[in-house]
Amino acid sequence: MAIKIVTESTCDLPREYIDAHECLDVIPMVFQFGEQEQLDVAGEVDDHANYERLRAGAVATTSQLNVDLLYNRFKKHLQNGDDVLYLAFSSGLSGTCSNGVLAASDLKREFPERQIEVVDTLLASLSEGMLVTRTVERLERTGEDVATLARWAEAERPHMNAWFTVDDLKYLKRGGRISATTAALGTMLSIKPVLHVDDAGHLVPVGKERGRKRSLKALVDHMAELCDDPRNSPIYIGHGDCIEDAQLVADMVEQRFGVRPDMINYIGLVIGAHSGPGTLALFFVGKNRG
């Protein structure tokens, strides 16, 4: 008997990490340009090309994982004699977690001898990924059962921080996070919002800065405020096809705290479709989410 930690591609973990951990199963989510559907498979999807399509004016849409897909994915592991811990994309941003709960409920009746638990991470992108990596590493270190791991992940969840800024306000306007007037004024004045994932798992604006560099610095300022021990915290950076800005934030982190981020990776289009090219995010473990 083994344990499978299941999550979705919204965790934005790189292919190398996924392949290195046999206990991890990452389900690809789906996005579409018009009628063209793509599976968000790490290492296979061309993130740069997809962000270029957004820049050229294409509109991408996304959809949640349905109950049947999750049911079949979980069932495969249970039939193999494995227990399942599902670390789900924030219920504040998607209905996928609720569908996972429904699938797990049916499977608990079919496989009473197996354990299956669902944890709503209330996280997105590499903050979800950070909770996943920490849970994977705990499983590999301790061999704890699914129920124990689930309770541990729930206790860790409030400490996972996700701080974002975006470069083009039209994506937040399209998603209803800011008004058309705010978007127009912000664009004219080069005002960049700072957002974070709150305790309810929603992506909410919490501030604004004049100019891109100040908005990037604001992310590091929030880390300084909330992270008590940067040298012993995992630090990840996610970007929407703006690697130079990601490296700039990595340099700011190193100058401020004396450590380099552990991971820099693309923010996949399932999230990037709603935040746009130029999205930059800093992820770390903090005393709370701020």
TrEMBL record:
PROSITE patterns: DEGV. Pfam families: DegV (PF02645). The chain crosses the membrane at residues 263-285. Keywords: Lipid-binding, Membrane, Transmembrane, Transmembrane helix. May bind long-chain fatty acids, such as palmitate, and may play a role in lipid transport or fatty acid metabolism. NCBIfam families: DegV. This is DegV family protein. It comes from Candidatus Fimadaptatus faecigallinarum.
